[in-house]
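Limitations

Structures in this collection are predictions, not experimental determinations, and the ligand pose is part of the prediction. Treat each record accordingly. The example that follows, with 2-acetamido-2-deoxy-beta-D-glucopyranose as the small molecule, is included so readers can see exactly what is and is not provided: the inputs are given verbatim, and the output is the predicted complex.
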Amino acid sequence: MTRVSSFLAVFFLLFLCLLILSRRTRHAEAVAPLRPGFYAQSCPDAELLARDAVRRAMARDARSAASVMRLQSPVVMGKLNWAQGCDASLLLDDTPTMLGEKLSLSNINSLRSFDVIDEAKEAVERVCPGIVSCADIIVMAARDAVVLSGGPQWKVRLGRKDSLSASQEASDEIMPSPRANASSLINLFQKFNLSVTDMVALSGSHSIGMGRCFSIVFRLYNQSGTGLPDPHIDPRFRRHLDRLCPAAGDGNVTGGLDSTPTKFDNQYFKDLVMEKGFLNSDQTLYSGDGRTREVVKRFSLNQEAFFDAFVEGMLKMGDLQFEQPGEIRRNCRAVNNQPLAQIYNLSRGIKEVKMLQSLLLN
Ligand code: HEM
Ligand SMILES: *[C@@H]1O[C@H](CO)[C@@H](O)[C@H](O)[C@H]1NC(C)=O
Ligand SMILES: *[C@@H]1O[C@H](CO)[C@@H](O)[C@H](O)[C@H]1NC(C)=O
Ligand SMILES: *[C@@H]1O[C@H](CO)[C@@H](O)[C@H](O)[C@H]1NC(C)=O
Ligand SMILES: *[C@@H]1O[C@H](CO)[C@@H](O)[C@H](O)[C@H]1NC(C)=O
Ligand SMILES: *[C@@H]1O[C@H](CO)[C@@H](O)[C@H](O)[C@H]1NC(C)=O
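Predicted complex:
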């Protein structure tokens, strides 16, 4: 790395920090706690309209629920990361070679589920323009996706602002890796004040949805570089996965994250106990760590316990988002103020992030 680009990288980070800090102080007094019924007066139909959009999307394609729901995890965490700004440690603490794989997680699914958010946002904007944030629509839609898939019902806390970062891609940066083991997941969630129980319960969102072969071939054929499969896969289930995902096959083929991928239930945990988890990051919760195994066992035996812990985890995760300065976006895909969008455009910033990484790692 040349001295000039090192300088540029540092300058970029400083610039970002200053910008974020100045925005933050300017908006500091606007901060108010999230609460249920935030739009009861200003846009009473908001929640109804959002649910209708999710329902329509699910009628078109049952998987929409999962795809919408998935947004809450990376979006919340991604934005929190950028709100912290100056300490972009989460973004940087993986090795440069991991970046490429993480980026490829920004996949077709995310794009597709953004259509649902757009649809909900448009419906809400028609009735009460400029009132309801996209962040709140995502949180409502994620809840609705769970409810409409047979999961628990709960009151979401609302009143978020949308981040000033334009890029949905940003969130993919810190999506936890499907290769992650239980202890690294515990540590990752700890950074957001989410407990072991929260983390296991939130992983239970994989009770709905699909994963790609791309995300599991390493564990089928070369777990941790051993040249062997993950030992924690039930033999019959492994034969099934081997057929679905042959070593040199199409990485875009998908399989259910649990054996009932359109139903939100505790089957996911039962599957883990039987070593029939799809993702390594799921199976490791049972097979890789005593702390998480206890929670998996409990949820596999008691669906109510899972639902209660899941709601608590979703509320906690939703509350995290609040720390950031922001606005009510008119269009969920772009910040209102375009020049800022370009500065914050992380998909453009990837280059700078890579530079920073090598700077910090060398
Ligand atoms: C514990 C850490 C987590 C890891 C390692 C993880 C990883 C993954 C991976 C690798 C996929 C499949 C992507 C693909 O192959 O295309 C996936 C899908 C999914 N994730 Fe997670 N995730 C985690 C936590 C969460 C949380 C907290 C939520 C929800 C709040 C969530 C919701 C989902 C959903 C619903 C899908 C299915 C999406 C679809 O079918 O389109 N995940 N996750
Ligand atoms: C879990 O993964 C982390 C990071 O990849 C690694 O440093 C650690 O040794 C692993 N822990 C176990 C118990 O395998
Ligand atoms: C976690 O909790 C501590 C102590 O309550 C607090 O200082 C910190 O800001 C929290 N971190 C996050 C990411 O919310
Ligand atoms: C398995 O992974 C290791 C480390 O990533 C690599 O060196 C090795 O060539 C891989 N083996 C096979 C059979 O792909
Ligand atoms: C999956 O599909 C996308 C878009 O359709 C394509 O760009 C990508 O190369 C495919 N990935 C794999 C692993 O086949
Ligand atoms: C962000 O950067 C990418 C890559 O340079 C570009 O294609 C995209 O249009 C930019 N987005 C915005 C909102 O400026």
